[in-house]
Amino acid sequence: MPPSTLVLVGTTKGAFILSSDDARKEWTVDGPHFPGEAVYAMAYDQRAGRSRLLVGVHSNHWGATVRFSDDLGRSWSGPERQAIRFPESSGLSLAQVWQIVPGRPEEPDVVWAGVEPAALFRSEDGGESWAPVRGLLEHEHRPRWMPGGGGLCLHTIVLDPTNGERMAIAISTAGFYRTDDGGATWQPRNAGVRAVFLPDKYPEFGQCVHKVTHHPSRPERLFLQNHWGLYRSDDWGDSWQDVANGVPSDFGFAIQAHPHDPDTVYVIPIQSDEFRVVPGAQLRVYRTRDAGATWGALDNGLPQEHAFESVLRDGLAVDTHRRAGVYFGTRSGKLYGSNDDGESWTTLADALPPICCVKTAVLAPS
Amino acid sequence: MAVSVVLPRALTPYAHGLGTVQLDASCATVRDALGRVAERWPALVDRVLTEQGELRRHVNIFVGDESIAFLDGLSTTIDEGATITIVPAVSGG
Is there a contact between A81 and B42 if contact means CB atoms under 8 Å apart? Predict the structure, then answer.
């Protein structure tokens, strides 16, 4: 039976492609692709009849670029020259590709990339050539954006499926910014989000937002995992409310909305910024089903002692099956999966290189 | 003026498999030489220099037996018959 489900895993030493059928009980592991190169961004694009895997690769020696495959990784292509390039006038050089997001269905050739140093690039040919979004590249706040531990990275891209002029991004460390005019101008939207590391705890911008997620059916409702703080917005980021109700720590990186229910969200709390492992060395995913009013632990099948694990900002993903698959990868190279909304977990791989990102795809029938 | 630019194995695919690029054109500095290489093999030089024209952090270039890090960087002058060697730095994890 041909695979219907892909789990894409980027690691510090290459990319892996796991495939399974609808049951998602048996998995085939393929990789590494790009051995020795760090992969922080992966995406699968099946708009307009495409079947394209996009990967942001980073060689410690030779720099970063985007490669793609139209045959599920059997062969790779991409522009021979470095496709994502800062203009000379910016004085900036590409360090890493942190995020690749296919555009809206009605613009099937548009792909977005978030990079380090923090900038947003847009492709209008499926990811083969790229141009910077000038409104953000030349933002007046840029001189005051500061790199976090992972560098000054634009790691989150959130599209409004109902309004082609609206989208949002998040930068560590700058915060959450939104455009309502197609990228010409960008406004910080961080009211209510703490910056514990600054004298002013609630600045206009400068927060270390780790990740933001939402459900396309209710795009204005956003969930944000901060560098200390778990928040929800019901107005596209105009205001944020603390929803860390019952999690053992509100520090963490990964946050992911359920594929079918806009009030269901998963997080993986981390003990603290100084001790970046799961609380109590118990590996647990926390889920809310009421938009953050309450959170409950999911640990069936996960190690509950001596689990000194951490999960990075893009290390948690869901698939779109009716009974959602939930997947996460740890910095120690363990990949866990659930085929029942997170109720139970199995180990899909236990000795990969440190995992930087996990993405999924449910393949359209051919 | 003949100058040889010796490539590491990882970069030979960007020069149609050549291990050494021979330059016959005049070039006074390492930067000039890389500019000449880029005219023919731009993707190769993308991997050596950033888009701002700076040497990537984990790439070393030698003129003869000396690293340009201890000379004048990309402005290091080269003599006729010089051999420029591009080497990945000792780094990683």
Answer: yes
